[in-house]
Write a structure and sequence with these properties.
This protein is an alpha+beta fold and 343 residues long. 22% of the residues lie in helices and 31% in strands. The protein has 2 domains: 114 residues, 3-layer Sandwich (Rieske Iron-sulfur Protein); 213 residues, Naphthalene 1,2-dioxygenase Alpha Subunit, Chain A, domain 1, CATH 3.90.380.10. It binds FE2/S2 (inorganic) cluster (FES) and fe (ii) ion.
Length: 343
Amino acid sequence: MWIRNAWFVAGWANEVTREKPLARVLLNEPVVIYRKADGTPVALEDRCCHRLAPLSIGRIEGDELRCMYHGLKFDASGKCTEIPGQDRIPPSMKVRSFPLVEKQKLLWIWMGDPALARESDILDWPYLDHPDWSYKPSYLHYKANYLLIVDNLLDFSHLSFVHEHTIGSMSLAETRAQIDRTPYGLKIWRILDNDVTPAFVRKLRNVGERADRWNIYDWHARGNILAMDSGFAPLGTGGHQGARENAVQFRHLSVQTPETANTTHYFFGHPQALAPGNAELDEQLLKTVTTAFIEDKDIIEAQQRIIDLDPNVRMQAIVHDSALFQGRRIIEGLIEDQAVAAE
Ligand code: FES
Ligand SMILES: [Fe+2]
């Protein structure tokens, strides 16, 4: 159903404070995330081993978490350290703990075999905490399987229709993307010289009514990560390869973490370098991006509802499906490898 041996985004770092644990279902497992006294984030199974109450409605005490049903206390490794009114603590009294790393404003969790978790495999994407770039961290909850969202992100021809009135232009559906296989997944290039400039871009900087447009992104199969370089440069200035001083350029990160078989957490950020630290601009861009993302969400959730009526009905392919077919094959291959390794 999904890759387990991967670093998934569990949340934005600022979602977890010292005061209140965060409850989140990830890959169909209940997880609680809290911070120790020194700020280090900890991820435990959100299910007390006593009567299975969620630890997330418990209390942080020092570096530990107390279940507020009958008071069992757990340390950061998941070991029970106290049972009120009972001296002996059986070793089976524990909850699972997950490797968790805070990096570049995100919390990355490893839900698979902990022996395979290597911190150096976590995505390095400096735009999330670079002083020259700013954005507002964002989240959407989807009532859809994560693969339908991956499909959507691997094929931007939908921009012409789903985003007809926001960020799309007809040429996106008429241009074929270049798709390269990479060790981590795919690299996709959509270069549109002399395309219509969307209104929101013209308001940011006068790049002209038509501009040289690019969307170049890396898609990572492990963790369902899309990391993009996109922008609009004045005509004839070299587009993505040229000087970018007069361009409007963005970076974009979209990550999908499965919640359950048919629901997904969607984390995204859209850094801009036009005015780093300008919260008003970050807010305005977030509004534009969110408007477009709600358009995606509406069609994808509607698609999921139709699929649910009869999951056996098969889809048919068109030329633009090339990247998403490759993407799905890569994910299926990794899930199969994982199943073989687990045997
Ligand atoms: S359910 Fe947690 S202490 Fe009883
Ligand atoms: Fe979209």
